[in-house]
Design a protein that fits this description.
Layout lengths: L37 H5 L15 H5 L9 H8 L10 H4 L9 H11 L2 H9 L5 H9 L4 H40 L5 H7 L1 H22 L3 H18 L12 H12 L3 H16 L5 H20 L1 H4 L5 H21 L13 H9 L3 H13 L11 H6 L2
Helix pairs in contact: 5-8, 5-10, 6-8, 6-10, 7-8, 8-10, 8-11, 8-13, 9-14, 10-13, 10-16, 11-12, 13-16, 14-16, 16-18
InterPro entries: CYRI (IPR039789), CYRIA/CYRIB_Rac1-bd (IPR009828)
Membrane topology: Lipid-anchor
Subunit structure: Interacts with RAC1 (GTP-bound form preferentially).
């Protein structure tokens, strides 16, 4: 295999076979060779006389281009954002600490994320007032049963209000992160490498969002309780009966909450709308700054999951779930923001590869994520979507 000298002097770093992703030039199974082009021979774009590929960003590897093994640190820098629990590797186990320039946004988002686990615990333990509601409906003249049902529903609606208000806080946090991770003059990949703490927070928001929606979709009690609350409140108003709990959730807030919970995936809808609004409000910012940030994150997750070398570093299955949720989350946001979406041939996201990664997991663990792609994306059913991709999601 030809070798490329990265600088005028000998390179002390160990040299091993380059990664051979894709068809080989020397026959089946042979690794790709690095052949220096004119730009590399002249050193254009390099630093200190080195050719450009020596400082290749993580995106070059994600797009399947060759790079030296020691340049995998570029990938590890970006993949800190998909670190779960455990000690996958020295680089991935490090907690991404905010730099001075990140601290303001980081601290604002951190306040929101600190409450995320509590929200999920409350949602997971949400049992609903189905029994009390059925009893009240079956015996409309029994005042005690009516009071019992109302007394059971009011505190539950207080929880639903807390979930809804958290979605508004999460939306504000996402918009702050988008502003930081897409600003000029840096490219999206440079942002993900420079602002690793913010990138990790972005991933944690998506992870929370998919977990919340998975729990909500499997809990019909939420909408049943809230529908009963609104019907009963309306009846009380007509009869001029004072309603405990009305001050907590007034009519205007109840309307907004009703729209929120009517969505199959309310948190994803909130974040999709927020991302779309962010792009439309920042017309001076190229849309590629946002879509490239999302597609790079999707590629990082896909590569980590489909490459045995990286997958073997995961010592905890929750890390796999984390990567899968983040990957699906950024695909959905990309599909809502990009003019032609994530499924078109021109998309920067390898949708076939991402769907294959999902289908390679145990079916019961990813059905919710596949449904999110089926039912919450915007462009899946467009004519530009290939029949193969549509059939993969059937």
């Amino acid at each position: 295999m030809p070798k490329v000298t990265p600088g005028p002097g000998p390179d002390p770093r160990p040299r091993r076979r380059v990664l051979g992703w894709g068809p080989a030039r020397g026959g089946p199974g042979a690794p790709r060779a690095l052949t220096p082009g004119p730009a590399m021979r002249r050193g254009r774009g390099g630093v200190g006389g080195r050719p450009p590929f020596v400082r290749a960003p993580a995106a070059r590897l994600l797009e399947g281009e060759e790079t030296e093994p020691w340049s995998l640190s570029n990938l590890f820098k970006v993949t800190k954002l998909i670190r779960g629990t455990g000690t996958e590797s020295p680089a991935l186990a490090e907690d991404a600490q905010p730099t001075e320039s990140e601290k303001e946004i980081y601290n604002q988002v951190n306040v929101v994320l600190k409450d995320a686990e509590g929200i999920l615990e409350d949602l997971q333990s949400y049992r609903g007032a189905g029994h009390e509601i059925r009893e009240a409906i079956q015996h409309p003249a029994d005042e005690k049963l009516q009071e019992k049902a109302w007394g059971a529903v009011v505190p539950l609606v207080g929880k639903l209000k807390k979930f809804y208000e958290f979605s508004q806080r999460l939306e504000a946090a996402l918009r702050g992160l988008l502003g930081a991770l897409t600003s000029t003059p840096y490219s999206p990949t440079q942002h993900l490498e420079r602002e690793q703490a913010l990138a990790k927070q972005f991933a944690e928001i998506l992870h929370f969002t998919l977990r919340f929606d998975e729990l909500k979709m499997t809990n019909p009690a939420i909408q049943n309780d809230f529908s009963y609350y609104r019907r009963t409140l309306s009846r009380m108003r007509i009869n001029n009966v004072p309603a405990e709990g009305e001050n907590e959730v007034n009519n205007e807030l109840a309307n907004r909450m009703s729209l929120f919970y009517a969505e199959a995936t309310p948190m994803l809808k909130t974040l999709s709308d927020a991302t779309t609004k962010f792009v439309s409000e920042n017309k001076n910012l190229p849309i590629e700054n946002t879509t490239d940030c999302l597609s790079t994150m999707a590629s990082v997750c896909r590569v980590m999951l489909e490459t045995p070398e990286y997958r073997s570093r995961f010592t905890n299955e929750e890390t796999v779930s984390f990567c899968l949720r983040v990957m699906v989350g950024v695909i959905i946001l990309y599909d809502h923001v990009h003019p032609v979406g994530a499924f078109a041939k021109t998309s920067k996201i390898d949708m076939k590869g991402c769907i294959k990664v999902l289908k390679d997991q145990p079916p019961n663990s990813v059905e919710g994520l596949l449904n999110a792609l089926r039912y919450t994306t915007k462009h899946l059913n467009d004519e530009t979507t290939s029949k193969q991709i549509k059939s993969m999601l059937q």
